[in-house]
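Support reply, case 0932

Customer input (verbatim):
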Amino acid sequence: MTATAESNRQRGPSDAEVARKINQLLSQMTLEEKLGQMTMVENNSIKPAQVAKFFIGSVLSGGGGNPTPNTPENWRAMVCAFQKAALETRLAIPLIYGVDAVHGHNNAKGAVIFPHNIGLGASRDADLVERIGQVTARELLATSVHWTFAPSVSVPQDLRWGRTYEGYSADSQLVGNLGAALVRGLGCRCSDDGSRVLACAKHYVADGAAGWRERPVAEQAPQQGSTAPPQDSAVPQAVELALGQWRIDQGDACIDEASLRQTHLPPYQDAIAAGALTVMASYSSWNEEKLHGHRYLLSDLLKGELGFEGLIVTDWMAINQLDPDYQQCVVQAVNAGIDMVMVPYDFRRFIFTLKEAVQQGDVAQERVDDAVRRILRVKLALGLFDQPIGDKSLLESLGCAAHRQVAREAVRKSLVLLKNDKQSLPLSRDVPRVLVAGRAADDIGLQCGGWSITWQGEAGATTTGTTILEGIRATVSDSADIDYSADGQFAGDTRAAVGILVLHEEPYAEGFGDRADLSLTSDDINLLQHVRQRCDQLIVILITGRPRIITEQLPLIDALVVAWLPGTEADGLADVLFGDSPFTGKLPFSWPRSMEQIPLVALRASDEAPLWEYGYGLTN
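Our regenerated output:
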């Protein structure tokens, strides 16, 4: 940890002080107040007055659960309205507002969006990741958000998984190092009042080991975002599945316990040691048993053997998958060790069901008290009772130049140079003419990917930042001619010494990104072939959440750069393309030669080496 980070660590109350306060509150709380603390509700499904009426412990914004219009000021007003309602309750227990700030405060327009974790894994820079955590915390607290459901410390074993980009690496040690760094950064003091942000290690455990299914996990998946069904409805807003998705996500990790402990558990131990006080359970299963109902993994291992004293929170409506009978879902999850339930819609139904289960003896009062004790401990450790509202002065720094410089550095360090024939890179600023092609060359939304303003992400000028094309134009000399065509259809017989082609994956999140084939699309290949004919040297930049199969197209490319999902500050790409900074990134995953080398177990069994090994990356 840096000296600055250490000096900024929050000095919380002593253990004895926390214990006294918890005991005092528990002795005064009614059953209804306790059950309310165990309830997390989606922001569009509850009003501030209902937060007070039902003693709600947490409110969240799902992906896309943004205020209208989406501004930092409106974010702050929305969150503060819920918090002020919680403080009006009899015991004035503050709620904790949560968001998926997985690469910056990525739901709020104007906030800095950093590279997704796979890019940070390529940087291998724990100090950088810690500073990213600090910036993210400041921007969250500007809007009075105190909890982010990050870091993801999964260890992806199958690149077809739509969450691959949420993982730092296939190497457990690297995942643990960087996950712990983010936890430290989020937990640093961000203002004079001592406010900081709560981290959440997810998704516990071995979600990255889930295998490919021949049929989707479910016919429909719950829709996150700003539209919720009526509160008296038990049916979630749903979205149709297409393109063979949801084949890995929420699946089953068929591995032995030794593998689970050796590969997938250590990053959680690292995150907890770094100060993570919350853990989110996974939708997935371990050997056909759902994690949200897995008493051995949640209570015996995590809370017992590892001594985790924080709270375990569910994923979005995840307990509903445990049993056709909703009461059994609630009973099984809470008895297994779940402390806070992300309902997220019909909170009345959840509270009523859990109350009935306690009264009937299906859930022991002691289990409820343990859950509430953990929730109160986390809130006290975070300092919410003293500072429930984030520092308003931080709004001035949200999206500021200093924060964007950290993101620009992260982009530079995440780039991996895979091929550089003829010393094509770095480019000269004085290059007479450059042809630039590809939609993603001038599209903020595409370079940010999923979990960016909306849950799935989307193309277009979704937020503030710099595109790849803008970065190139700002870097070259005034005499250089930059000729851009999104579809590569340049006028007449246009040619240039240098062509830059940006290929991309369409944005996705979670199981919507599960793909059977990671090859370049026919449109990508046609565009590549077309631009190749127009230039002497072709540089290809891949905007992607995972390695793509590019073996057959490689001979057409002189220089190949994988930029992952760089976020809003793509001028960091220009810094490296034109030689102001060197390429330093190294692959966080081996790059397969063909689909036959996916998943990782297939690569290890292959007679051929991958196209590029884990850790590969050229310098210039």
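We compared this against your earlier run and they match. Two observations from our side: The longest helix spans residues 365-382. Residues 1-10, 225-244 have pLDDT under 50 and may be disordered. Please reopen the case if you see a mismatch on your end.
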